[in-house]
Design brief:
By secondary structure, the chain is of the alpha+beta class. It has a single domain (4-149), classed as Hotdog Thioesterase (Thiol Ester Dehydrase, Chain A, Roll), CATH 3.10.129. The chain has helices at residues 9-15, 18-23, 53-74, 110-120, and strands at residues 26-30, 34-39, 80-90, 98-104, 122-132, 138-149. β5 and β6 (138-149) form a beta hairpin. α1 (9-15) runs antiparallel to α3 (53-74). It is globular. It starts with 8 loop residues before the first helix and ends with a strand. The model has no long low-confidence stretch (mean pLDDT 95). It comes from Denitratimonas tolerans. It holds the Pfam family YiiD_C. This is YiiD C-terminal domain-containing protein. Residues 18-149 form the Thioesterase putative domain.
């Protein structure tokens, strides 16, 4: 995908991380509310021929991290974003490429997250993500709390 989001500094930073390179991750879509990352099954397969659970979790976590990081950066904030805690549910094996979609959890707004960071130099966000197979079957879900902190430099 060659879009303005493809060359976003957050995506550039993400795609240069060695573990991310090994997964062959790529940006598959972005709008103001959701971010999608994709990775080929061939680089993320387990001994059963389906997607490796660690790859599923990583792609969902990274999609949520990237969305929050991009929203903060696009609002003019320098922030270090960390996953604070998360929960993953594996619902069905995935025998195709990984496509994770992430969004801000219902009940929060981007204005709340961004305004808190602007006022205090820190913010928390609850993020959701999912991976579905090509037929639309939900394979796994992610729910996580992220914290954004002003850099210490």
């Amino acid at each position: 995908m060659d879009t303005p989001a493809s060359s976003h500094p957050v995506i550039t930073r993400l795609l240069t991380m060695p573990p991310v390179q090994a997964m062959q991750l790529r940006l598959a879509g972005f709008d103001a509310d959701t971010l999608c990352l994709a990775a080929p099954l061939a680089a993320n397969v387990n001994d059963k021929g389906c997607a490796f659970g660690g790859s599923l979790t990583s792609v969902m976590t990274l999609a949520a991290w990237a969305l929050l990081s991009m929203r903060l950066e696009d609002a003019g904030h320098r922030a270090d974003v960390y996953v604070q805690d998360s929960s993953v549910r594996y619902l069905a094996p995935l025998y195709g490429d990984l496509h994770a979609r992430a969004w801000l959890e219902d009940g929060q707004t981007w204005n709340e997250v961004l305004d808190a960071f602007a006022a205090k130099g820190k913010s928390r966000a609850r993020m959701e993500a999912e991976i579905r197979d090509p037929a639309g079957t939900l394979c796994c879900t992610f729910s996580g709390r992220f914290v954004a902190l002003a850099p210490r430099d």
